[in-house]
Design brief:
Length: about 280
């Protein structure tokens, strides 16, 4: 039996394929709710552009909430069975989470309870994790703390440097778990409580991680560069910043092997790392 589904997300590259998968599974996505950000109007739109009828998946009602207190009111008229949340920036009140008949479920790209919070990819790189995680969990009124419905891992490879490169395998991994998620929701399964062990928070980085020390190992530097790229400009600290041949640079991409494209070879603590992309550091 198909379900009427509402989506909470601010990221088109997630919503577009998710709508297709849900329809393949026999469900009916009926609405996509986004958060309005009036204070960001002066910033450029995201790479996919502002969401309108021109780029949104067909057949969805587009809803824009001005505040988290309005979310419940906007959802109540949609007769929803399930709300799926993925890439949404507000901590929602319980009355909004209680609107759908079977519950509200979030996808968090980490193996919870590890790396709760807004920047799990950045911390997976920083801590040298062997895997990316993905977790579908029931939502409660806190961030990423609700009972788990399904989770799995995806190998984190040395060549995984930017989300456009590794994102598709994480999406596919999450999509493959959806039948199990709906099976548990339909059964009224409350989910598995998260462990109280191994809890960590994936917040912004501090200033002492912003500077590249070439005496570190190539892998430590490679992870540092990849980690900073996945903070997506959060916080007031810029990184990673390096001194190289008298230049002060922001390092954007490195490689542990010679990419053969003229990348800059740099000797570090245990050998060579290649600086593939960089730009002048901000003053």
């Amino acid at each position: 039996m198909g379900h009427r589904i509402g989506l909470l997300a601010n990221v088109l590259p997630v919503v577009d394929p998710l709508v297709g998968i849900l329809r393949e599974l026999g469900h009916e996505p009926v609405a996509w709710l986004m958060s309005r950000k009036p204070h960001l109007y002066e910033l450029p739109p995201p790479p996919w552009g502002d969401i309108t009828d021109r780029n949104a998946p067909e057949g969805l009602n587009l809803l824009f909430a001005r505040s988290k207190e309005d979310v419940a009111l906007l959802l109540r008229g949609l007769d929803l069975d399930v709300v799926l949340c993925w890439g949404f920036n507000w901590k929602l009140p319980q009355d909004a989470l209680d609107v759908p008949r079977l519950g509200s479920v979030n996808n968090h790209p980490a193996f919870l309870p590890r790396h709760r919070g807004p920047y799990p990819f950045a911390w997976a790189f920083r801590e040298g994790d062997a895997h990316f995680g993905a977790t579908w969990h029931r939502m409660d009124a806190e961030f990423d703390t609700g009972p788990i419905l399904a989770q799995s891992k995806v190998p984190l490879e040395d060549a995984d440097c930017w989300i456009e490169e590794f994102g598709p395998k994480i999406l596919q991994n999450s999509f493959e778990m959806l039948p199990r998620v709906f099976e548990r929701l339909e059964a009224g399964d409350p989910g598995d409580p998260q462990s109280t062990e191994g809890v960590s928070w994936a917040g912004p980085f501090e200033e002492d991680y912003a500077r590249v020390d070439w005496l570190q190992s190539a892998r430590e530097i490679h992870n540092q560069v990849r980690a900073w790229r996945h903070l997506f400009g959060a916080g007031d600290v810029e990184g990673p910043i390096a001194e190289l041949d008298g230049e002060r640079l922001k390092i954007l991409r490195t490689s542990l092997t010679d990419p053969g494209d003229g990348a800059r070879a740099v000797e570090c603590g245990d050998g060579t790392i290649w600086v593939v992309e960089s730009e002048p550091a901000p003053a």
